[in-house]
Amino acid sequence: MVRVDDSDDVTKCWLSPGELDRLERAAGEDGWEREVAIQLMGRCGLRASEVSYPSDSNLRYSDDGDIWLFEVQGKNTKGGSKKTRDAWMPDDVADDIHKYSRERGLDLSDRWVDASTPSVRRWVNEATHTVAEQTDNPRWRSVSSHDLRRSWATYHLVERQVDVRTMMSIGGWSDYSAIEPYLAEPTEARIGEAMRP
């Protein structure tokens, strides 16, 4: 079930990997481009404003790291002009992107998602409302596009215990104070695993 913290002015939500899968499928019912947008936020940690930047020309395989990386131009958390970084992409998302690009006949420079930031946010809202209706779970209505990035960061920082410096690099945070809010409480499963004798 979607974890919700509404104790502050802004409601924060966290999705499990399974819940993210469900959201991706719901978005995909309205088009593959929407599903790709959800994957870029929930699986790769992009901000809604960064989703429309990458194209096939930005994606590369790193033999050194044995991983997929792609260039993103996004927010500079220290202020000022946009900052370019290499974001990480899971293998299954890279497979989807390659299939998507081939099916759509995209050129190397054609963006994967050709939509404005407000449109991307609206797509997330529409998909979460679809899942809320399908599951009869009103918590889904509180999920925002930023919650996808929050879920991605928390999952890797808290559940997978990826080191903070790596997450800062691939997520585009310039200093610890910018990433610290993502160090939320662990899930019940993580607590159980950590405390099991």
Please give the domain count.
1
Number of helices: 8
Main sheet: strand order: 3-4-5
Please give the CATH architecture.
Answer: Orthogonal Bundle
Biggest beta sheet summary = 3 strands, antiparallel
pLDDT averaged residue by residue = 91
- Quick one: CATH class? Mainly Alpha
Structural class: alpha+beta
Structural write-up:
The protein has 197 residues and is α+β, with helices and mostly antiparallel strands. It has one domain: Orthogonal Bundle (hpI Integrase, Chain A). The chain has eight helices and five strands. The strands form two sheets. It has a three-stranded antiparallel beta sheet. Strands 1-2 form a two-stranded antiparallel ribbon. A hairpin with a 6-residue loop joins strand 1 and strand 2. Helix 1 runs antiparallel to helix 2. The longest helix has 19 residues. The two termini are 27 Å apart.
Task: Describe the structure using short key phrases.
two-stranded antiparallel ribbon; 197 residues; alpha+beta; three-stranded antiparallel sheet; single chain; hpI Integrase, Chain A
